[in-house]
Each structure stands twice: as structure tokens, then as C-alpha cells.
Design goal:
Blueprint: H1 3-8, H2 36-42, H3 48-106, H4 109-117
């Protein structure tokens, strides 16, 4: 309807000529109620024969998907194992460094003298004497 006629309240004149349908005006089908999947298979988009032909390919794709998922799980597991081993290596490195520092401290001359003093062994105050042996004495 004409918007101007609508605002004035006048009725539009009846045309005696039959109206031609324009190509823009198409008859819209209402979708049928029911199982959409069944309609999809029976309407010819995918026939039963085509679906059975695609079955090996779909099985192959699903197998590849399962392999992909298993591969990602294995990768995550390997990453966790690597992190665990890295932590263990760090702890062992710290332990090595602390034991090495303890050994260096305990191998000092004063520390060794303190340990062997309880056994009755004392540090020499007089330098050692050099013994010279000739070949004739032997």
C-alpha cells in the first residue's frame, strides 16, 4: 500500500487489471515438521547408497582423529615426564654442590687436624727430614 494513503485514511482504489507476479515474489515453502535427519537422507541430498560408499572414508577419518587424540595425550605425558626429570636433575645438582662444598670444607688442614686429634695423631711442627740413600748401602 501507499504510505501516503495509509496516513490520510483513504482506501486505495481497486485495480481491475490482474497483477502480474514479479520474479522477486516467490512462494516460500514452509518446512515440514518431522525428523530433519530423515528428510535430509530421503530428499536426495545424501542417499543411502552414497552414505554407505562414504562409510570407509568416515571410518578412516575417525581412526585418524583417534590417533591424533592419542598422540596429543602422549605428548602431554612426555612433557610432564620431562618436567619431572628436570626437577629431579636440579635437586641432584643442588645435592651435588652441597656435598662438594662439605667435602671441601672437611678436607681443610685444620678440620682434618681436629678430626684426627681424638685418635692421638697431631700435626707436625718440625719439617720432615730428607733421607738420602746411596746405591752402595742398599
Amino acid at each position: 500500500m501507499n504510505q501516503f494513503l495509509k496516513n490520510t485514511g483513504e482506501e486505495p482504489e481497486q485495480q481491475d487489471e490482474p497483477q502480474l507476479k514479479s520474479p522477486r515474489q516467490k512462494k516460500v515453502k514452509k518446512p515440514e515438521t518431522g525428523n530433519a535427519f530423515k528428510r535430509l537422507l530421503t530428499d536426495g541430498v545424501i542417499t543411502k547408497e552414497a552414505a554407505t560408499e562414504m562409510l570407509p572414508f568416515l571410518l578412516f577419518i575417525s581412526f585418524l582423529c583417534m590417533l591424533y587424540i592419542a598422540n596429543s595425550h602422549m605428548a602431554v605425558k612426555n612433557i610432564r615426564d620431562i618436567d619431572k626429570l628436570n626437577k629431579e636433575v636440579k635437586e641432584l645438582s643442588w645435592e651435588y654442590k652441597s656435598l662438594k662444598a662439605d667435602l671441601m670444607f672437611k678436607s681443610k688442614l685444620t678440620e682434618v687436624a681436629k678430626k684426627v686429634d681424638t685418635l692421638g695423631i697431631r700435626e707436625l711442627v718440625v719439617p720432615p727430614k730428607k733421607l738420602i740413600i746411596t746405591n752402595d748401602e742398599h
